[in-house]
């Protein structure tokens, strides 16, 4: 029996192929790039309105003065989504009332922020549950203050 028998040559070839596949050069693993870093900023209602998801813009909305980056949920909060009215706006009153109508939004962006003092206990609980949901799911990227507030950025 010879070392160069057909069965030995087949086994040697199989071993060589296995070695090749085990030690072959591989493409480096590239991780997907994450979202750009978000910087905590102070927003006024008119500045927040810019973040309504039009074009390639991010989608932000405010709940009780906290501004959330809801861009990962752009299909819900961006243009064409069921909550698109809230994009770039203070959504507190609408969320508290479980209403996504435009009449729930503050019309006068240069006026004071909605203080929500007229909400009843059920509405406040609705708002609290929405705020908790946003806190778990999205990044807080800023604070909403009224135009002319001492914290408001200079234009």
TrEMBL record:
Top-rank lineage group of the source organism: Eukaryota
SMART domains in the cross-refs: Cyt-b5
One of the Pfam families matching this protein, by short name: Cyt-b5
InterPro entries per the UniProt record, alphabetical: Cyt_B5-like_heme/steroid-bd, Cyt_B5-like_heme/steroid_sf, MAPR/NEUFC/NENF-like
Regions crossing the membrane: 6-23
Molecular function per GO: heme binding; metal ion binding
UniProt keyword list: Endoplasmic reticulum, Heme, Iron, Membrane, Metal-binding, Transmembrane, Transmembrane helix
Annotated compartments: Endoplasmic reticulum
Domain Cytochrome b5 heme-binding: from-to ranges: 43-145
One GO CC term, this protein: membrane
Entry keyword Transmembrane helix: yes
Protein family (similarity comment): Belongs to the cytochrome b5 family. MAPR subfamily.
Name assigned to this protein: Damage response protein 1
């Amino acid at each position: 029996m010879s070392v160069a028998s057909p069965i030995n040559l087949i086994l040697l070839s199989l071993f060589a192929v296995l070695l090749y596949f085990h030690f072959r050069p591989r493409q480096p693993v590239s991780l997907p790039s994450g979202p750009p870093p978000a910087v905590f900023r102070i927003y006024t209602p008119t500045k927040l309105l810019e973040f309504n998801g039009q074009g390639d813009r991010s989608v932000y909305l405010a709940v009780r003065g906290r501004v959330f980056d809801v861009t990962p949920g752009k299909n819900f909060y961006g243009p064409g989504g069921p909550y698109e009215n809230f994009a770039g706006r203070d959504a507190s009153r609408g969320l508290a009332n479980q209403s996504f109508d435009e009449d729930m939004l503050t019309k006068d962006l240069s006026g004071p922020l909605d203080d929500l003092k007229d909400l009843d206990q059920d509405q406040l609980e609705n708002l609290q549950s929405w705020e908790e949901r946003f806190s778990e799911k999205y990044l807080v990227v800023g604070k909403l203050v009224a135009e002319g507030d001492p914290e408001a950025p200079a234009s």
